[in-house]
Specification:
The chain is of the alpha/beta class and 326 residues long. Helices cover 43% and strands 13% of the residues. It folds into 2 domains: 11-54, Arc Repressor Mutant, subunit A (Orthogonal Bundle); 70-314, Rossmann fold (3-Layer(aba) Sandwich), CATH 3.40.50.
Length: 326
């Protein structure tokens, strides 16, 4: 009599399960072939395969990362009142989420941008992933919408603009300046520099902008991590929920602490709202409240996101939008 293992199957049956499963799932053999090889009926093979899955001898993992969910996207689009939404499967790893969302945004730009447009790009790790995956583009001019934070050249907004411009053959207008400086006078002086001033003058001509979304509560923002504790606490107390291109907004979509922008090299709040098309690329359920806030602020007309954030957005009240149309 055969011994019985902890899963309730005999050792002989477990060996048959493994053999049948390997031949069926790995070698792609038919049940009839396996039955002949093992000297059992094909019905026995079917039971062995079923038991192999039930007892954990065989586990199946579906790799769906990058797969789009059109039906879910349509629900989110209607819920948020946006022009378009794209939702991709991206898993749980933050780097993978940024990569898949960035790749989806790159694909969308490749199929929708038209020659002669002015493309404005903010900064962030998702946009870095987007720029690395960018397909060939029609000839568009590309301008940087914010100064830079940090010293990582690969994630610099200057590098993002350079990569995208190379894919289009258009002109690149980088912003060789920090995003945040110590005081408004320094910011004003930098804005008068010829290269900086040339970029700032292009902001009124931007037809499509692509932005990332920073969440301040819960915290998931590169900008949030770069400012001092006292200033961070004061801004949070003032009601900052989200940030786009260093524009700080509250849950109800109002600009918070406009004095902070006086120290920033960035596009203005009303300038951003006046852009006909603003594509926000963001992933992760923790950014749901932040995305809702920027929608209310009129800083997003389209969204590229992952399934986790899409489902979290559907659990929130539908944000009212009063975005002025050009």
């Amino acid at each position: 009599m055969s011994d019985t293992d902890v899963r309730g199957a005999t050792v002989d049956d477990r060996a048959l399960m493994v053999l049948a499963a390997r031949r069926y799932y790995v070698d792609d053999a038919s049940k009839v072939q396996i039955a002949d090889e093992l000297g059992v009926s094909r019905f026995k093979v079917a039971r062995l395969l079923e038991q192999a899955r039930a007892t954990g001898v065989v586990t199946i993992t579906i790799h769906a990362d990058g797969l789009q969910h059109p039906a879910l996207a349509a629900r989110v689009r209607d819920h948020l009142g946006l022009t378009d939404v794209t939702v991709v499967e991206a898993g749980d790893d933050p780097d993978a989420v940024r990569r898949h969302v960035g790749e989806a945004a790159a694909e969308i730009l490749g199929s929708t941008l038209r020659a002669g447009e002015v493309l404005g790009l903010a900064w962030g790790r998702t946009l870095t992933a987007m720029s690395a995956a960018m397909p060939p583009l029609p000839r568009v001019d590309v301008v940087q919408l914010t100064g830079a934070i940090g010293t990582d050249l690969d994630e610099s907004p200057v590098e993002v603009v350079r990569r995208v411009a190379l894919r289009s053959g258009g002109t690149a207008r980088p912003l060789f300046a920090p995003l945040v400086v110590d005081d408004p006078r320094t910011a004003q002086a930098l804005r008068r520099q010829p290269d900086v001033a040339a970029a700032l003058r292009m902001y009124d001509d931007v037809t499509t902008a692509v932005v990332s979304v920073g969440s301040w509560a819960p915290p998931d923002s590169q900008l949030l991590r770069t400012i001092g504790d006292d200033e961070r606490d004061a801004l949070l107390a003032a009601g900052v929920r989200a940030e786009v291109a260093s524009l700080l907004v509250s849950d109800d979509g109002h600009l918070v602490a406009p004095h902070f922008q006086d120290r920033c090299l960035t596009i203005g709040f009303e300038q951003m709202r006046a852009i006909p098309r603003i594509v926000a690329a963001a992933g992760g359920a923790q950014k749901a409240l932040a995305v809702a806030a920027i929608v209310r602020a009129g800083l997003c007309t389209e969204l590229v996101t992952d399934r986790a954030l899409a489902e979290a957005l559907l659990e929130l009240p539908s944000p009212a939008t009063d975005r002025p149309r050009a």
